[in-house]
Structure formats: structure tokens, C-alpha cells
Specification:
By secondary structure, this protein is mainly beta. It has two helices and eleven strands, in the order ααβββββββββββ. Strands 3, 4, 6, 7, 8, 9 and 10 form a seven-stranded antiparallel beta sheet that branches. It has a four-stranded mixed beta sheet with strand order 1-11-2-5. A hairpin with a 2-residue loop joins β3 and β4.
């Protein structure tokens, strides 16, 4: 995980519902170890933050910086939660992939406990979109460019 500079995140515009649908989860037939992975299928560098619930409550973490056409493990080992939440920003072209589940973030590397009172605690409040892994032990998220031509890939599947 590498910190994102505040200048990388400023000036974002919202990428609509099509972008949410374009952030897809794809089944990979392999015997690879169990992980939560993110693949950036765009032509841009992106920053990713992740939210999830652990045994003590809500946690958000960021930023993972992914180069264009690169993959990275966000959580190693078997998944301990069914639901994860993702928020991503496009560093090169602006825009974001987000949703209606609000959690705390900040402009540089972070691990934040709790999702309440983000602004009062000195954090940003960002909208994350939900990923339902269906209780799979391994999952890969593929983030695609909402402006790319052609039909959007399938909506959800484990790897």
C-alpha cells in the first residue's frame, strides 16, 4: 500500500452508475491462493480504498496505487467477510468509482476504525460501492473504464 498525494485526488468528478456496473467481479479457474484482488483494466493509474467489517467493527484502508493494466492483492488469505466496499479514483483522467455506502477516508495512507462522524474526526467522507462475495474464500475485482466501447462485462462472480 502506497500513500496517495492530495493533489492526485483533488478535482474528481463522479463517474455514474455505469461505472459501478463496470467495476466487475470475474471468475478465474485456478488453484491460486485465496485473496481479495483488484485488477485495474483501465488505461489510467488508480487509487483504491477498501472498507470491511472485522471482529471489532468497521475498518477502511487505503490507498493502493495500481498502474494501468495491473493487479494487486488488497487482502491476503481467505476472506473473512462476505461484503467488502470499494472506492477508487482515477489519477490520470479524474473521476471516481463510488457508491452510497459512506465511510471515512483521507488523502494519504490510512487505516481508520469506524464509519461514523468522519468529518468531525478529521477525515473525508467517501461513498463506497458494495461487493458481495457470496461467502467465497477468494475474489477478484476488475475495475474497467466506463468510457470504453463495447458491452460491459458480467456484473459479479467469484474467482
Amino acid at each position: 500500500m502506497i500513500a496517495a498525494s492530495s493533489s492526485s485526488i483533488s478535482g474528481r468528478r463522479t463517474v455514474g452508475l455505469a461505472a459501478l456496473l463496470a467495476a466487475t467481479l470475474v471468475l478465474f479457474a485456478s488453484t491460486a491462493r485465496a485473496d481479495l484482488r483488484m485488477c485495474n483494466l483501465t488505461e489510467s493509474r488508480i487509487g483504491v480504498s477498501l472498507g470491511y467489517r472485522d471482529s471489532t467493527g468497521w475498518v477502511t484502508e487505503g490507498w493502493w496505487n495500481l498502474a494501468a493494466r495491473a493487479c494487486e492483492t488488497l487482502r491476503g488469505g481467505e476472506l473473512s467477510s462476505r461484503f467488502f466496499y470499494l472506492y477508487a479514483v482515477d489519477y490520470d483522467r479524474g473521476g471516481e468509482w463510488g457508491g452510497r455506502s459512506y465511510m471515512c477516508t483521507r488523502d494519504r495512507e490510512f487505516t481508520i476504525r469506524g464509519v461514523e462522524d468522519c468529518l468531525a474526526r478529521g477525515f473525508d467522507r467517501s461513498g463506497f460501492f458494495e461487493i458481495d462475495t457470496g461467502e467465497q474464500k477468494s475474489w477478484t475485482i476488475q475495475l474497467t473504464d466506463p468510457a470504453r466501447s463495447g458491452p460491459a462485462p458480467a456484473a459479479a462472480a467469484p474467482r
